[in-house]
Design a protein that fits this description.
The complex is a heterodimer of chains A (223) and B (87). Chain A is mostly helical and 223 residues long. Chain A has 10 helices and 2 strands, in the order H-E-H-H-H-H-H-E-H-H-H-H. The longest helix of chain A has 27 residues, at 196-222. Chain B has 87 residues and is an all-alpha fold. Helix content of chain B is 64%, strand content 0%. Classes of the chains: A mainly alpha (223), B mainly alpha (87).
Chain lengths: 223, 87
């Protein structure tokens, strides 16, 4: 699966400071000046004003399309899901009561559309057995060895993209929701109807798998 | 495998706890075992580095210009369908 922004971001390494501090997580669907929907605009859209709804689309299209593209990794499906998300929004906008920021509410609505599509595609979002009983190669302690290679410094963009694409579907989903979209484990557990421990476990395994994949690639390049 | 420095818990025990610690802000990096163990510190740094690098892989992109036309048509179809059901 090709990365959504492969062409735009190039194929070079991602430079990271050695031993940098914990990464700053984004807030899902965070409201910014660029996506701020005024109460007046929202009210008009809720009253059925088509132009107001088009304005809301213009403000949020980038964020929602990018979310769909990241989660599906396919432009045609991302367009389809963006359409579905805004169709759902049109049906449900009257039910928005302002208990959370509008952009957060819309982001969550779009995530639900994505999850429904993934379920339709037969993706087993969560496998409890897989999560609770790690294979021998995933058990703690496996990560270390005399040939251990440090990953701090530069990470090859394409290698990382490939490693993410190769993750088992459930791991990839939780990795994307937590590390890329910025959801907390309790929110993921709620969305996926799984336990918080399960979400944590799958995220950890996803990261270990990515690390292993990058180390293998690094080792092969060093030969 | 454990390093030579005596620690309150082993590397294996610490790594077993990692799923609970990750995503919990700075708490994993502040764990006493991490302060003492270079190997586990490196593991943690690696995992954080990967997460940060992954975030840089997925910037926001614009949808195609004609997507709104498709959505607009779908909304009109939807409204038409609702109208027919009501009649």
């Amino acid at each position: 699966m090709k990365g959504p922004d492969e062409e735009a971001s190039g194929a070079g390494p991602i430079e990271l400071a050695v031993g940098q501090s914990a990464p700053v997580k984004s807030t899902p669907g965070r409201e910014s000046a660029a996506t701020n929907v005024s109460p007046e605009l929202l009210e008009r859209a809720q009253a059925g004003d088509h132009h107001a709804f088009a304005e809301i689309y213009a403000l949020h299209k980038r964020r929602i399309y990018s979310l769909c593209l990241r989660m599906l990794g396919n432009a045609a499906e991302a367009e389809d899901l963006t359409q579905e998300a805004f169709l759902q929004l049109h049906r449900k906008i009257g039910t928005f009561r302002g208990e959370s920021a509008f952009s957060t509410w819309l982001h969550r609505l779009a995530i639900n559309v994505v999850l429904m599509r993934l379920r339709k595609k037969g993706l087993q979002l969560i496998s409890l057995d897989e999560a609770m009983e790690p294979t021998a190669e995933e058990r703690p302690g496996r990560s270390f060895g005399t040939d251990d290679l440090s990953l701090t410094g530069a990470i090859d963009r394409l290698a990382l993209q490939r490693a993410i694409d190769d993750l088992p579907a459930g791991y990839r989903l939780i990795f994307m929701l937590h590390d890329i979209e910025g959801y907390e484990h309790n929110e993921i557990a709620d969305m996926l109807k799984c336990s918080i421990g399960n979400s944590k476990s799958q995220l950890h395994k996803a990261r270990l798998k990515l690390r292993d994949a990058l180390r293998i690639q690094s080792r092969e390049e060093g030969r | 495998m454990t390093s030579e420095v005596p620690k309150s818990i082993s590397c294996a025990e610490f790594q077993a706890q990692l799923p609970d610690l990750i995503g919990a802000g700075d708490s994993a990096a502040d764990h006493p075992h991490v302060r003492e163990c270079a190997l586990c510190r490196e593991l943690l740094e690696n995992l954080e580095t990967i997460a940060e690098a992954a975030r840089q892989l997925f910037p926001e992109v614009e949808p195609p210009d004609d997507l709104w036309d498709q959505i607009d048509s779908a909304i009109k179809e939807d409204e038409k369908g609702k109208g027919e059901l009501a009649n």
